Amino acid sequence: MSALEISDLQKTFLSPEGLPQPVIHVSAFELAEHNQVALRGGSGSGKTTFLNLIAGILKPDAGMIKIAGREMSALSESERDRLRATTIGYIFQTFNLLQGYTCLENVLLGMSFGPGVDREFAKALLKRVGLSDRLKHYPRQLSTGQQQRVAVARALANRPKLVLADEPTGNLDQANAREVLGLIRETCGENRAALLLVSHDREVLGQFESVKEFHQINHPVTAREAAR
Q1: Distance between CA atoms of 143 and 195, rounded to whole angstroms?
Q2: Does 193 fall in a domain?
Q3: Over the range 143-160, which residues count as b (16 or more CB within 10 Å of their CB) and which as e?
Q4: How far, CA to CA in Å, does 139 sit from each of 105, 119, 136, 149, 174?
Q5: In whole numbers, what is the pLDDT of the chain averaged over residues?
Q6: Using an 8 Å Cβ cutoff, are 23 and 63 in contact?
Q7: Domain harbouring 192, CATH code
Q8: Is residue 66 a part of any domain in this protein?
Q9: What does pTM read for this prediction?
Q10: What whole-number distance in Å separates Cα of residue 189 and Cα of residue 100?
Q11: Which of 52, 110, 148, 154 has its CA 20 to 30 A from that of 139?
Q12: 200 near 166, Cβ under 8 Å?
C-alpha cells in the first residue's frame, strides 16, 4: 500500500484583482510506504500549498488525495481531522510551537488529538532528539535548533504513516540544519514513516537518494491558457 496517492489535484486562488490564479495542478504523484522523497522548488512555486492540501489544511478544488489507502475527499470534516491527527505528522518551517506550553506539553498536546497521550513515548522522543534535559523548558527558553527538534518530536508523536516537512531547516544555521535533517530522516526510518520533504537548499536535497523537481509534477495553467 502506498503512503500517499494523488491524482488530478487542483487548487486555484484569487489574485488581488479578483482573477483566478491556478497554483496547483498535479496530475499524478505517489509515495510508497517507508520511502523518503525530497521535492525541489523555488520560493513561491506552490510547495507549501501542495503540502497543506495533502495535510487537509487546505481543501482542493478538484482531485483525489489518498493517504494510507483512505481518500480524503470521501471523509467528513471530523473524519479528515481524525485521519490527519493519527496518520500525518507535519514539520513546519516556523515550528508552530505553543509558546505557553513546555516542550513536553507541546508533544503531549499533539498526542491528545490522536490515539491518546503516551507520556513515556513523548519523553522518549524528546530524548531521541537530544532534549531530555529540556522537558520543562518553554519555546522562548530554547535555541532555534532546539525548537525545531521539539517540532520533529511532536510530528512523530502519534506514530504517523506519513511525515510532511516544509523547509524544516530554513531557519537553522548550517550545522544545526545538518543535524536536524539527520534526526528527521533517522526518526522517520525508526518509526517506519514515509517522508515527503520540500526544500530549495542544495545541501539538504543532496542528502536524499530520491529528489523530484516540483515543477515537473506541478503544471498549473494560467488564466489566459484556461480561457483559450
Answers
A1: 25
A2: yes
A3: eebbbbbbbbbbbbbbbb
A4: 11, 19, 10, 11, 21
A5: 90
A6: no
A7: 3.40.50.300
A8: no
A9: 0.90
A10: 31
A11: 52
A12: no
Nearby residues of 210 by Cβ (< 8 Å), 6 or more positions away: 35, 36, 37, 38
State pLDDT tens for residues 77-100: 888 888 888 899 999 888 899 999
Query: Tens of pLDDT along 109-151?
Result: 989 887 889 999 999 999 988 899 999 999 999 999 899 999 9
Q: Could you give the C-alpha distances from 176 to 41, 148, 170, in angstroms and in order?
A: 22, 10, 10
Instruction: Give the containing element (helix H, strand E) for 165.
Output: strand 162-166
Instruction: Examine the pLDDT at 59 and tell me if it is beyond 60.
Output: yes
In a domain, 112, yes or no: yes
Full residue range of the structural domain in which residue 103 is found: 34-61+78-216
Number of domains in the chain: 1
Task: List own/partner pairs for 107-115 with CB under 8 A and 24 or more apart.
Answer: 107/150, 107/153, 107/154, 107/157, 108/157, 110/154, 110/155, 110/157, 110/158, 111/157, 111/158, 113/81, 113/85, 113/158, 114/85, 114/86, 114/157, 114/158, 115/86, 115/158, 115/159
Decide: 132 and 163 in contact? Cβ < 8 Å.
Answer: no
Flag whether 156 is in a domain.
Answer: yes
For the segment 170-210, what is each residue's pLDDT rounded down to a tens digit?
Answer: 888 888 888 889 989 998 998 889 999 999 889 999 999 99
